[in-house]
Design goal:
The chain is an alpha/beta fold. The chain has a domain of about 150 residues: Isoleucyl-tRNA Synthetase, Domain 1. Strands 1, 2, 3, 4, 8, 13 and 14 form a 7-stranded parallel β-sheet that branches. It starts with 5 loop residues before the first strand and ends in a 43-residue tail after the last helix. The C terminus is likely disordered. The protein binds 5'-O-[(L-methionyl)-sulphamoyl]adenosine.
């Protein structure tokens, strides 16, 4: 399709504290998806940002003895620095305290108010600051928030409400007739289960300034600010020019993939679609909910104090290995456990032993047996049975990796690519180019090494969105620039006569940190 575009978003992160692995994961996942689409030559837009209003941020500011704006300005830098370090290639970064966002939120509010989609009434219920969500008495579990199990606060105040309840039947039908809208499918069932068994309430969309000042003022009542979720969800369209730049907006909207963690399923699959419906804006194609990173069996979260600091892992193993681990280890949709042991095991086996070792073997043999230059091989290079078999396996990996992007099974795609890498290592064991060289079979040595290098070229292209820096280094060793996915099915892309690069260790082995021995 000539006019196909790809728009991917991450949730916008609260700036009450610094980022952790959970945040890094969603952003890396979006980056990997964006990068694959760019390589496929599909016009791509990748948005991330920060959610800066609400009680949670205000409380963090109070605790730190600074203003809410200072809290935002100081914390947003930590996110932006981490994204830079993680090689994130977002096209825009939206902060909800920016003018370009606030004015549009106010326009939306005014429009909905004028059309009686928003009304004023008394609110009596419960609020969880951790989740920034309103709950009814019935929702609570033993007096605690049903989402995070922390105490909720009782609230009685005048507020403004969005007529969300009137969209209940419409939303059920929409989800049922659009199976791609909520992914994976079991999450759609979760939302449907909720919608079919509970009466949807209208959504409280304001907080009185007497209770919370840190928010966007309602344009029709200066005593109130808007509820943080109503403000936050709109970032996905304010950033791309909703009500400001129609051309830009219609180029990217509806979004292709809106990535979220499973903790924010209701807000994205109930609040967000009903808001869009009331606004007359089409719904995103897919809301995709991934699982949690756990420490042992519990969710990794700042308040539980069990977070893994991404910076520390990156310092030890490099950014690309960190990105690889997160994408390879988590089956999209399921939870996964982050442990140093699992990280070191996967790093050493997939990256140091299989991939890194294959590159250094190939380069050093090209140096030793072919004078450091890619030999010319004839058209018959793929005619031998082991050659044909290997190239077919590599092509199979191409198919699996490409298929895994559409079906969001990236970990399976990566496993297929690593499978192909292992087959190249096995191919060396079968062919034994070192013996062939001793026997003076120069042409066969050339074919073996060129086929290994071509296979590595293809694998590196497939791994490039996950490990851009290291795979770039690998390709440079073959005299190649950025990968072109169109050339993955072609054999013989590396030019004969190219001088091979140095065999640097792409992924040096790492050891598990040993416990300090007890002093005698
Ligand atoms: N500000 C809201 C989102 C508004 S989007 C319009 C919010 N922010 S958050 O900072 O608390 O978390 C955002 C996202 O971080 C979660 O949805 C999830 O994607 C990710 N994660 C936070 N902890 C996580 C794990 N332990 N594991 C995986 N991802 C999790 O919610």
């Amino acid at each position: 399709m000539a006019n196909k575009t790809y728009y991917v978003t991450t949730p916008i992160y609260y700036v009450n504290d610094k980022p952790h692995v959970g945040h890094a994961y969603t952003t890396i996942l979006a980056d990997v998806l964006a990068s694959y689409h760019r390589l496929l030559d599909i016009p791509t837009f990748f948005l991330t940002g920060t959610d800066e209003h609400g009680q949670k941020v205000q409380q963090a500011a109070d605790k730190n003895g600074i203003t809410a704006q200072e809290q935002c300005d100081q914390t947003v830098i930590r996110f932006q620095e981490l994204w830079k370090r993680l090689e994130i290639t977002n096209d825009d970064f939206i902060r909800t305290t920016e003018e370009r966002h606030k004015v549009i939120v106010q326009e939306v509010l005014q429009d909905l108010y004028d059309r009686d989609e928003i009304y004023r009434a008394e609110y009596e219920g419960w609020y969880c600051v951790g989740c920034e969500r309103f709950f009814t008495e019935k929702d609570l579990v033993d007096g605690n928030c049903p989402e995070c199990d922390k105490p909720a606060e009782a609230i009685q105040e005048t507020n403004y409400f969005f007529r969300m309840s009137k969209y209940q039947e419409w939303l059920i039908e929409y989800i049922e007739t659009h199976p791609e809208f909520i992914q994976p499918g079991f999450r759609a069932n979760e939302t449907l289960g909720f919608l079919k068994t509970k009466e949807l309430q209208d959504l409280c969309i304001s907080r009185p300034k007497s209770r919370l000042e840190w928010g966007i003022e309602l344009p029709f009542d200066e005593d109130f600010v808007t509820y943080v979720w109503f403000d936050a969800l709109l970032n996905y369209i304010t950033a791309i020019g909703y009500k400001r730049d129609d051309e830009h907006f219609s180029r990217w909207w509806p979004a292709t993939h809106q990535l979220i963690g499973k903790d924010i399923l209701t807000t994205h699959t109930v609040y967000w679609p009903t808001m869009l419906k009331a606004m007359g804006v089409p719904l995103p194609k897919t809301i995709f909910a991934h699982g949690w990173w756990l420490t042992g069996r519990t969710k990794m979260s700042k308040s539980l104090g069990n977070v893994v600091n991404p910076m520390e892992m990156i310092d030890r193993c490099g950014v690309d290995a960190f990105r690889y681990f997160l994408i390879a280890e988590m089956t999209l949709g399921q939870d996964a456990s982050f442990t140093e042991e699992a990280f070191v095991r996967r790093y050493n086996s997939d990256l140091a032993n299989d991939l890194g070792n294959l590159l250094s073997r190939t380069l050093s043999m090209l140096g030793r047996y072919c004078d450091g230059v890619f030999p010319k091989v004839g058209k018959n290079a793929l005619e031998g049975a082991p050659e044909k078999k290997l190239w077919e396996s590599v092509q199979q990996a191409v198919e699996e990796m490409e298929g895994s992007i559409d079906t969001m099974r990236l970990s399976q795609g990566l496993a297929a690519v690593l499978g192909a890498v292992r087959k190249v290592n096995k191919y060396f064991e079968i062919k034994q180019p070192w013996t062939l060289a001793k026997e003076g079979k120069t042409e066969e040595v050339g074919i073996t090494l060129v086929l290994a290098a071509e296979s590595l070229r293809v694998c590196a292209a497939l791994l490039y969105p996950v490990m851009p820096e290291r795979m770039g280094t690998l390709r440079t060793a073959f005299g190649l620039g950025k990968p072109e996915l169109a050339k993955l099915n072609t054999f013989g892309v590396i030019k004969a006569g190219t001088a091979v690069g140095k065999a640097e260790a792409l992924f040096p082995r790492v050891e598990l940190k040993k416990e300090e021995p007890a002093s005698p």
